[in-house]
Backbone:
């Protein structure tokens, strides 16, 4: 394959709501550019991009895919990202390594939940965007209505560059507003538009929209604005130059239209990608971090030391792991010795490929600005930086959203516990947005993900790829136990005589509560030698045993101070085990006397919803014992901050989806522990007692 310099490379990310046709658009682009020999279809499983077994079964993109094609002497790298909300982490990762984004809009449904969410990610990444209104062949397709909605949502810089000829079953082509040329397409998927005369009934509309386009472009540049006022128009050259500059600066958001399934209008989009999207060499520097994690602007140059970022790890059954990598400076070559700065390990570059879905083209070099796949690196995965030794910098890791849905899992078959850990560790290398860990205090292994679909996909992969099945349970809440008042001089005597050496220990302790979050303190206040120095730590050990297993309901005990104040020993029978038992029992006795309570974890919840749902959300949060701490307007959205007990939001994602018709989203993080109300505490204690009784039986 021809080698392209950074000036002739375009890196573009496709984003949208799920099911709008991103993958079909990528298939059409590759076929139109003659990069593939047939037009693959998602619906019949022939797509070269959605090629995973679970993607074919679910008919949806689950993992990011890379494709590329050559058009007008330009290499276009296109990243196809999942549209389903559970997998938006891939869109966030992809947007870090591209210079442009194409937001795909459904001609029937328009702006949807996923559109709003990916638009926020685009704005965070500061990447310019264009829109492609897809599926103009649908019966109720409405380009004008969708264009108005885009302008309302994203401002006056939104303007059409191509408009449809007909719609629904009569959709047959597009008009280019710059050149005023019309193109019609055969519905055989061949993809190249045939020039036809501009339909007479569209002349007025074309003139009106072209004038509107001209105004939008003029508004993005002072010189163009001056020319427009002086001459009443802009030349085609000025229009194209202004579009390119305005798009790169985020001041112009072009809209194109077509039908990816029948490959109509895609050739015009490809030409726009070449003409408008910033080339890879437009990125002059990339923000990196030095050894002290201080920001450094590293030059993006072919002559600079190599800096490459692994933004996604993929896995193929017969080949193993692929790492998708963007080269920001220098180059990667076969046999190149590099350092994985993130892991501190050396790597040697072996097989390298240009990837087009499941198709691979060997290459011996990836130059500055290019994206490709690296096969079978030893320790390198998502979020790792590869550099020459001379670089001494790394890129910040992509910060993925915190998982929102959790489930407790356990092996269905005895002996499979290790397989679960190994399998999930492997899957986590491919998808860093979920977490898995064992929580000792609730004695459960918790799998957390962005949503229910992601959980299902993970567990299906665990079963199909690693041959291990699990049972699912509702996660327990990590309650804590503590006391509310001090008690003094509590005594316990342990005596045991079973023939031969006996056991004897007598201890007195004071117990008092500590401020929340302090933990546990043990204080030795023994005066004189009533308890040998060597035996006093044994009392602490005994207390520790009870701290871990709890007393009221079996949860860890926190925020207490135990003072050993007095005691008595026996010259023969006093020993370590006796004082451990005495310490455990005197602590239990004192704890029960000190008005014990349960504590529950409280989270900081941030809920972002359209304005019209604010009242419903606040009411729902109040019913969950939530305390509203603030509201922040953000355009048509409102972000509500609240502190809510974790027990009340275990299924919150489902409720929020229902209350907002899927348009709300939230994040959460642990805040603090606070007292469980008496009624709830009684239910928790009773449930714990029943569980313990059942376990004993």
Residues:
């Amino acid at each position: 394959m021809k080698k392209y310099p950074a000036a002739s490379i375009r890196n573009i990310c496709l984003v949208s709501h799920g099911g709008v046709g991103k993958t079909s658009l990528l298939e059409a682009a590759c076929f139109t550019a003659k990069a593939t020999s047939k037009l693959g279809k998602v619906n019949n499983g022939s797509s070269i991009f959605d090629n995973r077994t679970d993607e074919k079964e679910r008919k949806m993109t689950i993992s990011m895919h890379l494709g590329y094609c050559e058009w007008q002497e330009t290499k276009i790298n296109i990243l196809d990202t999942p549209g389903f909300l559970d997998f938006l982490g891939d869109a966030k990762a992809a947007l870090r390594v591209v210079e442009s984004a194409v937001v795909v809009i459904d001609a029937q449904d328009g702006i949807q939940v996923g559109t709003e969410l990916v638009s926020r990610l685009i704005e965070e990444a500061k990447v310019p965007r264009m829109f492609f209104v897809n599926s103009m062949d649908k019966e109720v397709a409405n380009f004008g209505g969708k264009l108005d909605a885009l302008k309302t949502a994203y401002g006056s810089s939104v303007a059409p560059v191509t408009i449809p000829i007909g719609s629904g079953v009569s959709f047959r082509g597009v008009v280019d507003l710059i050149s005023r040329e019309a193109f019609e397409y055969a519905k055989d998927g061949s993809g190249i538009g045939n020039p036809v005369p501009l339909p007479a009934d569209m002349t007025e509309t074309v003139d009106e929209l072209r004038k509107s386009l001209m105004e939008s472009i003029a508004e993005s540049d002072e010189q163009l604005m001056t020319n427009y006022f002086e001459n009443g128009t802009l030349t085609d050259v000025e229009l194209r130059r202004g579009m390119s500059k305005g798009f790169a600066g985020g001041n112009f958001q072009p809209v194109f239209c077509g039908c990816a399934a029948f490959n109509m209008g895609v050739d015009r989009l490809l030409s726009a990608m070449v003409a408008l999207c910033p080339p890879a060499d437009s990125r002059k520097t990339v923000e990196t971090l030095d050894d002290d994690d201080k920001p450094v602007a590293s030059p993006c140059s072919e002559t600079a030391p190599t800096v490459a970022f692994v933004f996604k790890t993929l896995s193929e059954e017969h080949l193993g792991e692929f790492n998708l990598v963007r080269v920001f400076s220098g180059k990667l070559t076969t046999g190149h010795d590099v350092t994985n700065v993130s892991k501190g390990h050396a790597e040697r570059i072996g097989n390298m490929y240009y990837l087009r879905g499941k198709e691979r083209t060997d290459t011996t070099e990836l130059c500055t600005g290019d994206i490709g796949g690296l096969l079978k690196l030893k320790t390198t995965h998502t979020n790792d930086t590869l550099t020459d030794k001379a670089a001494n910098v790394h890129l910040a890791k992509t910060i993925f959203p915190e998982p929102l849905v959790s489930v407790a899992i356990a092996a269905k078959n005895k002996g499979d516990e290790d397989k679960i850990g190994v399998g999930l560790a492997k899957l986590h290398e491919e998808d860093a947005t979920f977490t898995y860990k064992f929580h000792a205090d609730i004695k459960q292994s918790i799998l957390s993900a962005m949503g229910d679909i992601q959980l299902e996909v993970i567990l299906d992969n665990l079963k199909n790829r690693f041959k291990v099945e699990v049972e699912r349970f509702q996660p327990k809440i990590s309650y804590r136990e503590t006391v509310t008042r001090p008690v003094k001089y509590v005594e316990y005597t342990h005596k045991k005589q079973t023939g031969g050496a006996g056991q004897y220990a007598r201890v007195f302790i004071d117990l008092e509560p500590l401020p929340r979050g302090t933990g546990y303190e043990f204080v030795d206040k023994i005066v004189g030698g009533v308890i040998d120095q060597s035996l006093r730590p044994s009392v602490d050990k005994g207390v520790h045993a009870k701290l871990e297993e709890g007393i009221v309901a079996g949860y860890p005990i926190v925020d207490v101070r135990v003072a050993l104040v007095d005691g008595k020993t026996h010259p023969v029978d006093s020993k370590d085990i006796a004082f451990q038992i005495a310490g455990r029992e005197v602590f239990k006795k004192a704890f029960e006397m000190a008005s014990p309570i349960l504590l529950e974890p409280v989270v900081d919840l941030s809920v972002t919803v359209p304005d019209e749902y604010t009242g419903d959300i606040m009411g729902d949060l109040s019913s969950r014992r939530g305390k509203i701490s603030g509201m922040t307007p953000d355009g048509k959205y409102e972000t509500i901050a609240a502190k809510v007990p974790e027990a009340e939001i275990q299924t919150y994602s489902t409720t929020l989806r229902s209350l907002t018709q899927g348009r709300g989203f939230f994040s959460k993080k642990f805040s603090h522990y606070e007292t469980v109300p008496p009624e709830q505490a009684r239910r928790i204690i009773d449930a714990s007692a029943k569980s313990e009784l059942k376990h004993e039986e």
